[in-house]
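Work Package 3 (structural annotation) set out to generate three-dimensional models for the target panel prioritized at the project kickoff. During this period the team completed the workflow that converts sequence records into discrete structure tokens, so that structures can be stored uniformly alongside our sequence database. As a representative example, we reproduce one entry of 669 residues exactly as it appears in the project archive.
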Amino acid sequence: MAYEHKEIEKKWRERWKDLGTYRVENDPSKPKYYVLDMFPYPSGAGLHVGHPLGYIASDIVSRFKRHSGFNVLHPMGYDSFGLPAEQYAIQTGQHPAKTTEVNIARYREQLDRIGFSFDWSREVRTSDPAYYRWTQWVFLQLFDSWYNIEVQRAEPISSLIRRFEHNGFTGIDRRRLTGDEDMEAPTFTAEEWKAFNPREQEAVLQYFRLAYRSEAWVNWCPALGTVLANDEVKDGVSERGGHPVERKRMPQWSMRITAYAQRLLDSLDELDWSESIKEAQRNWIGRSRGALVKFPVVGHEEVIEVFTTRPDTLFGVTFVTLAPEHQLVDKLVTPERRAEVMAYCEQAKNRSERDRMADVKTVSGAFTGAYVKHPFTGADVPIWVGDYVLVGYATGAVMAVPGGDQRDWNFARHFNLPIIAVTEGADIEKEADERKDAIIINSGFLNGLDVPQAITRAIQELETLGVGEGRINYRLRDAAFGRQRYWGEPIPIYYEDGLPKALPDSALPLRLPEVDKFLPTADGEPPLARAADWTYNGHPLETTTMPGWAGSSWYWLRYMDPANTERFASKEAVDYWKQVDLYVGGSEHATGHLLYVRFWTKFLFDRGHIAVDEPAEAGEPGNDNWSLCADGELRLAWVCRNPMLAWMYLSLRFSFLLMSLKHGGGMKV
């Protein structure tokens, strides 16, 4: 008699479905355990083997915990907005919603066949209006908030307005209120604030809102008709499709994640994640202590501000380098140098920041013909433009010390610029001396001091002379949020006399409109501009949509109460499930998805919507409350601390390896 395993498995899957075997309710009488998988994007190709490898591991833990008396939340859903569905729609004319629905059905069939113990009653889809209504709601909360650096939390924008009405805004307030080193908001008195018209007041508030619109440098891909994130661009072309990408300045919605830089950094020490993941986030946030130095431009009113971690090397500055996108380039370049400099800037700025950071061998640049005054010596220092300087980091300008920085040394050698040794024992004929344990030389009042002493002394002198000050800087930049494409959450903003206004809660969800094509308009407007009546009470609606990471920044909360129509999740549900206990996902998302999830979580905590400020419990040595596990790697800390579970996981991995060999090695294991 043949063993009809397919029929038997089908029978029991249907039986378990009818009984609701894996359905979980909020039950305060039982200890909870929340197992979260990174939800998949439903592509047309269906699951690849890498998906179930992670899901098998989390499923083993879920089953074990259920048998150990825990109330286990183990949900699944779909990250169903995204560029691939839109590109397919452009090619075929088929609506992305239809192809996404078909792909989800295929994924569900495959997941069911494997027999995972997911609670499908809690399924979420980021493209479902019932879901993205709350993504839009979170956006509006961010739009209505600012970050008060004095108390280290987000507050309603109304509290900032009251402060302006009573105290105005002074230069001293700048860093205390915003924590943004690069902001250019003007100072004003309380009386001046009250006299501002609505447009002038909103222009000021845009410097403070956590979701804001401003002119920003973006990666623009004409072929795809959209802005791309840095990690979506490689070697000057789009990662998807290989289309040319150019850097251009355009109005852009952004998230002020930089306000949370220090909190995001500090909290890492409390998380039970792998050290490699935490270190990736530390490097991405990139905290550094140094000084802001002001270089007055000769013959101009402008001042070039430079952030440096090595003010001790100031006497070794032989030129200043601006990023090709720096706003002062056009103002400072001399007439005889303009053609060459602007041609260089146009070519250089279209390289992605990733490429420019990685390419340490190629040296290129152009002399502007202009000079700055050295803040200590008063000497004229030439201003160059070079693509090794990034406009998105610090001030977009560097004080070049070729004797102490290798990239500056390479640049100086290439263009035959002076190199001054500023550290004892340096052989500047061979390379720059970047040591931080040396003695300073050729540096006036800093001579004979070691590097830490010289840094402190240089900052004191800068502040005494009024030409600089001590600063803390972060590599982390605000996150570009708007996308010039169709298949994403509409941004719930309308414009009244050109001013951005939040849609009322009653108007949510703002649903995607019907359009004749999923392409930008003839004059370059996003696809939503094609809609017949894309307005709110006669006022135009925002035409860009949210990025893919918007919906995935809070899905772990929606799983707690997915059918709630009054709130993103009830207080009772959030208070019960609290945080995730085990998460299995890709380590490649450490500086994107995971960072954004932490940012949104801290924000929702600040505004009183949830009681935790991290999506994961703070870890303690030996505790199993959180493990960050990399998809496709045997780095499942929880599993590996339990021999039986480790054996089960390894057995299933071995089964997938056999499947791969059976299919000629073509399946990813």
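Residues 307 and 543 are 36 Å apart (CA to CA).
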